[in-house]
Structures are given as C-alpha cells and as structure tokens.
Amino acid sequence: MSLDKTVSAERVHIGFFGKRNAGKSSLVNAVTGQSLSVVSEVCGTTTDPVKKSMELLPLGPIVIIDTPGFDDEGELGMLRVQKTREILAQTDIAVLVTDSTVKTDEDEKIFIEIIKEKNLPCIIARNKADLLSEVPEASEGEIWVSAAGGINIDAFKEMLGGLTQPGKNERRLVGDLLNTGDVVVLVTPIDESAPKGRLILPQQQTIRDILDSGCTAVVCQAEQLESTLAVLSKPPKMVITDSQAFGKVSKLVPAEIPLTSFSILFARYKGDLPTQVQGAAMLSKLRDGDKILISEGCTHHRQCGDIGTVKLPAWIRSFSRGDISFDFTSGGEFPERLSDYKLVVHCGGCMLNEAEMKHRIASAKKSNVPIVNYGVAIAHVNGILRRSLELFPEVLNLL
After folding, report:
1. Which regions of the chain does DSSP assign to beta strands (E)?
2. 14 and 108 share a domain?
C-alpha cells in the first residue's frame, strides 16, 4: 500500500490545539503548504475540526487536525470545546499553539497538564515570533515560529518528524501468526449489509497483511466454506470469519483448524484484547432492566439486518434471556458518561485510530464498566470463545 493510499485510521494523527486567535490555522496552512483552514483576525474563525491527510517524513503518512479554540465562549462555544476534547482522544501527537507575544495563561497551563497526564508526545509552538525583537532558540518540545513570516516552519516540521512512536509501525494484524507459504481461509459474507462491489476495510487489510507475509488468502462465503476446505490439498493455517457468521462457520471448520474473526484480530491490533475478553463475562451476568451501549466507529446506512442495531441486540437478548435495553452510537460519538451501562459492546474499530480506540477502552475502565468487542461477544454467545482465542494463548487464562 503506497503512503498516499494509507487509510486514515493507520496514519499518525497530529492535533493542533490552542486558544482562539493563537494562529493554529495559519500554522496548519504553513505546515501543509495549502490554505486548508480559513484564517482571519476574528477570534473563533475555526468552528469545527478540519482534517488533512498528507505525508511528513520520517513519520510518513499523517493526518493533521486543526481544532477550534479551547477557550471558546457561549453555548455554541462549549460545543466546539467538546469537539476539541474528542479530537484530543484521537491524537497521537499534540501541538499546542500559543501567542509568543503574551505570557502562557491558565487555560494553556491546564492543557499542558492534560497532555502530560495522557503521556502524549507534544510540541509547544510559540507563534507570531515575527513580532518579537529576538527569536529564542528552540528547546526540547518547544519552538518559536511565525506562520505569517515563515520563521522556523521547516525546523518545526523536522521536530514533528522526530516524534516517532517506537513499535507503532511494527504491529501486524495477522502476519505475526503466519509463516511464509501458509494458506489462510477468509469467510466474508455478502448480505444486505455488505457494501456493493467491494469488501469492507477489515477484510481488505487482513488480505493485504496475509499477502505481505508471503502467504495465500483464499476468500469465500460461508455457503462455500465446506467445499473450499475440501479442495485444499492440506488444512489451512487458520480460518478467519466475519463475526456475524461465527455460529455457522464454527460448525463447518474442523476442531484442529484454528478459527478466529476479523473483529478479534482488530481488538488485538489496535485495542486491548485481554480487557475485552474479560468484558465478555458480563454477558452471562445480565439481568432484566440492564442497559448496554453498542458503539461503532464508522457511520453507515443502517440496513434491515444491521449487525450493530439488529443482530447483536437479538443475540444478546436470546443469550441472556433478559429484558435488556440498548443505546447506540456511531462515528466520533462516544459518551463521556458510561456509568448508566452494564456493558459496552464495541465494533472492531477499523475506522478509528489506535489512540481513539484505547481512549474508549480507558473511558470504560475509568467508569468501571466492562467493554467487549463485537467478535469476542458473538463468540461468547455462540459458546466458542475459547476456540476463537486459541491463536492467542496469552489471553486464554483469562477465561
């Protein structure tokens, strides 16, 4: 996959934060070399986060995010501030843009403390340096720049490029479980909820990782799985299925062939598989009146057989035999208050970056609410959770 085609969720997200009129948008435009954000002398010109995908070496493919001022006022201002907080949850590297002609104020100091608590890599960009009588030398994590005067823009970009995250690009979706020459069977149902003319992102990314590992991917639907296995000269290294077909597929795949799902692979890839395996236990403890949050990281047109809003609730109600109620969120929407829920059931998060997925898991932990992944939950209600985790012995002892 070429850098310019890297999906957003796999890019390093760099968020630009600061007070109104500190020059965030001007600095973003200077870094990208484009008029990405509207700039003016009027405070609060940026009303919604603006995103731009680009490349910045040595970080590679990135997403730059320009945010509204975190000191915005009024009812609408509070909504903008909330949106800025949501962006912070997606951020891999934070840039705090300040006005170098004035002292750091309390809002900016509080933001710096928040960044430290989150242990996020951060650069403080002291903007409007062209208005100073002398431009100070850059120090660790701090640089004086001028978006208007072009001062230290290249140095700032180099500083950003130096904030690499060890191990981030070494993670594998499935490749670390394979040896060159292995054959993997992928079960990809084509039903009313499947996108017309293409495969969904988790399937695409898994196929690519298999091919990058020097292995062979054999793709079929559940109805062709039995005949597909029969024509192979030897058993495949594993079978990976769409979670909604777990029940049917588990009956067709011999016990000696490892079986898991795309969703479980994504829980390990960008989330926290052990935590979500532990969360599955709550499915067996649900009682009448309990409430569950089902959250998806993407937004799409809901079909009559939608897995998140139709199939999962039906499976969970049938398994628990209780009168369970459900709330649903999608895309960037994820509630701060989770204490009303007995359980959070989350999708694989293929459209969310690792930072956002881990933020959601951390939010659930902070509220003492168990969280479970779609694939883990569906395997549990089908009675095959242990089998679906055989490829990951490090989490089997949690069952």
Report:
1. 12-18, 50-56, 60-66, 93-99, 122-127, 142-144, 183-187, 216-220, 238-241, 259-261, 291-295, 325-329, 343-346, 371-373
2. yes
What's the rounded Cα separation, in Å, for the pair 129 and 144?
A: 6
| Higher per-residue confidence, 85 vs 393 | 393
Per-residue pLDDT tens digits for 227-284: 999 999 999 999 999 999 999 999 999 999 999 999 999 999 987 999 999 999 999 9
Judgement on whether residues 157 and 44 belong to the same structural domain of the protein: yes
- Per the domain annotation, does 54 fall within a domain? yes
Which residue, 169, 193, 168, is CA-closest to 296?
A: 193
Cis peptide before 58 (omega within 30 of 0): yes
Instruction: Write the single-letter amino acid at 346.
Output: H
Token pair recorded at residue 10: 């796999």
The encoded tokens of residue 214 equal 């020097």
Tell me the C-alpha distance between 348 and 356, whole Å.
12
Number of domains in the chain: 3
* Residue range of the domain that includes 354: 272-385
- Token pair of 223 as six digits: 């109805």
126: which strand partners? 98, 144
* Residues 31 and 122 both lie in one domain: yes
Shared domain check, 26 and 146: yes
